[in-house]
Design goal:
With about 350 residues, the protein is of the alpha+beta class. It has helices at about 1-35, 45-80, 80-90, 95-115, 120-130, 230-235, 245-255, 260-270, 275-285, 295-325, 330-350, and strands at about 140, 140-145, 150-155, 160-170, 175-190, 190-200, 215-225. The protein has eleven helices and seven strands.
Length: about 350
Amino acid sequence: MKVFFYFVSRIYLKNFFIIFTALLVFYCGIDLLVNFKKLPDSANLDLLYTLFLAFSAVKYVLPLSLVFALVYSLITMIRNNELISLYALGLSKNLVILYPFLWALFFCFVYVGLNFTSFAYADDYKRNVRKNGSIGKQSGEVFLKFNDSFAYVGKLQSGSNSVQEVKIFNIKDFDLDSYIVAKEAFFKDNAWNLKDGNLTKLPKEYSLGKDGLEIKEFDILGGLEGFEPKVIEGIASNSDYTIQDAFISLMLFKAQNVSTTAVRTSLYKLIFTPFFAPFLMLIIYYFFPAISRFFNLSLVVFIALVSTMLIWGVLFLLTRLSENAVILSEVGTIMPIIILALLGGFMFYKHR
């Protein structure tokens, strides 16, 4: 079995890396041609842009490369009579497809693992380099709610744990209880530390002779505990998430009774969407003939490629509809993958 594993894996992996590299170079080349005049006059930034461009292209290129590599591998094996030879040596259909399927799952899991890191911000970094001439960007004003407080942030630096011009309005029993004004704040130990500001406490009763406004200045004051910087950045500039950031944002939005449609879609895209490729491979494989003598192989390949592009396009459309809350995020992102998995499992079970 090791011999068969090495043989099938070598053919599939060689084709995968060739197709993946070719699609990646094609994607980057087209983008560079279109945006060449918009790039900054800096060789270092241009190289960074190309690197981030390649990273951001992986989410489009990887699934297609996995499927296209299987199609091309099958063509090669059928024309060289290698596929029918494997069957003649005792390998079942399921065993032949099992090796490419496992490799495809492996690459998908690697991609999901990368989305736990800053790799997921590649699209943001690429956009920032093109528009601002730097990796980070400064977001404009943002006004948001957190528990019983409303916070205003004047300036937010992308990728930084600090903000400037902060105002926090604390509400109690539907009345303004106090408000805080600070020049800047930095996130540390799961809370925001406000610097160089003042706290204004409003009176409970507005009566003559009662206590009035109570104003205290401070150097450091804690607040907004658990409100992650990436959550604020995501709200301010609609930036990308890592899986960890998306999960934190989802829990926070649920607690605040804020719509979670966008963040749920982002989370499902990072985790589930790439897996359409391995399951689609299972389905396509069983429609390929063992030999080309009695079949129009070119037609079979054409149908396989067109079907792959159509399914990928439908999934992309459903994801867009989910992001705009036209359909449920689970319906647009998770359900299609489950359907493909069930169909692939049925085909695998049918040819056991």
